[in-house]
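Standup notes
- DV: blocked on the single-chain target, sequence here:
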Amino acid sequence: MVQSGFFKRSLRFDTIYVIHHLTVEDKHKTGKDLMEEAIHPAVQASGIGANFIDLKGSSELIPALTEVLRDCIEKARMPIVHFETHGHPLGLGPSVDDLVTWADLRES
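- DV (later): unblocked, structure below
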């Protein structure tokens, strides 16, 4: 637990999900690199789970999040969900032509 001034903060999690959704033009597969070079080595002996989800299109985002939610409920997981994609004023995804709107995320 970290103390800062009058506030006590703690972060408890047992699973990390990396949701990777970049375009072919994004030459570096940063989500995969993050998982292989940082997360997996860090969690190997800790008992923390690590899951990599590679989306092929924005239409896969809400079903992937639904699956993460189902998994967390069924297994009583406390997750961190990391999105490796681009943000836009209209939504989340690698490009304006391939994104999930903020409204669609709120509704799902």
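- Follow-up: The mean pLDDT is 88.
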